[in-house]
């Protein structure tokens, strides 16, 4: 019996299993940042042994879930039209970013509670770089403030997005109002 097809089949099965586990982790951790390995394995339709065969510990699983959420978010953000005046681009970027942040707030909480702070920052490097480039462009256009470091302004925007998501989760902001409030807040923070 040839071994190559069996090996390929096992690898494909393993990849499907990993994808199910990561998807279940994203779903479970997005609802509850304290979701257990048992909860995630059950949601993925696998046993603990299978899960631990692919992920040595909760930290690896949380990182994989966070990386997958950021990859999916990158696909959405890469579709945002970045042409035109910086203020208009900011609105389009915030509209797209807001929904992504709202979906993954609890997952971020899980990551912050599990991964080192530096690793969470590394995982967010792509979205941060896009925003940093936009802020610099807005400064060059004279529409964004230049009296504070760009990295600080980018961090403040990220804090606003995450804070708004927390306000949503606590029912202190209505979901239908939050996008507008985020945009108004960030525009006032960045205004020259």
TrEMBL record:
InterPro entries (UniProt xref): Homeodomain-like_sf, HTH-type_TetR-like_transc_reg, HTH_TetR, Tet_transcr_reg_TetR-rel_C_sf
UniProt keyword Ribonucleoprotein present: no
PANTHER family noted in UniProt: HTH-TYPE TRANSCRIPTIONAL REGULATOR BETI, HTH-TYPE TRANSCRIPTIONAL REGULATOR RUTR
Protein name: TetR/AcrR family transcriptional regulator
Residue range(s) of DNA binding per entry: 36-55
Domain HTH tetR-type as annotated: residue spans: 15-73
UniProt entry tagged with the keyword Aminoacyl-tRNA synthetase: no
Key words of the record: DNA-binding, Transcription, Transcription regulation
The organism's taxonomic lineage, starting at the top: Bacteria, Bacillati, Actinomycetota, Actinomycetes, Streptosporangiales
């Amino acid at each position: 019996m040839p071994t190559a097809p069996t090996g390929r089949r096992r690898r494909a099965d393993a990849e499907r299993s990993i994808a199910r586990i990561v998807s279940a982790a994203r779903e479970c951790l997005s609802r509850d940042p304290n979701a257990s390995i048992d909860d995630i394995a059950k949601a993925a339709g696998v046993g603990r042994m299978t899960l631990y065969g692919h992920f040595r510990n909760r930290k690896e699983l949380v990182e994989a879930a966070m990386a997958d959420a950021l990859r999916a978010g990158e696909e959405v953000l890469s579709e945002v039209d970045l042409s035109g005046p910086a203020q208009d681009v900011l609105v389009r970027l915030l509209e797209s970013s807001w929904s992504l942040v709202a979906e993954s707030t609890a997952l971020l909480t899980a990551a912050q509670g599990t991964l080192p702070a530096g690793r969470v920052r590394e995982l967010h490097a792509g979205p941060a770089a896009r925003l940093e480039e936009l802020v610099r462009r807005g400064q060059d256009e004279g529409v964004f403030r230049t009296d504070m470091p760009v990295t600080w302004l980018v961090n403040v925007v990220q804090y606003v997005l995450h804070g708004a998501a927390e306000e949503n989760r606590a029912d202190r902001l209505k979901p239908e109002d939050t996008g507008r409030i985020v945009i108004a807040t960030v525009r006032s923070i960045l205004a020259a």
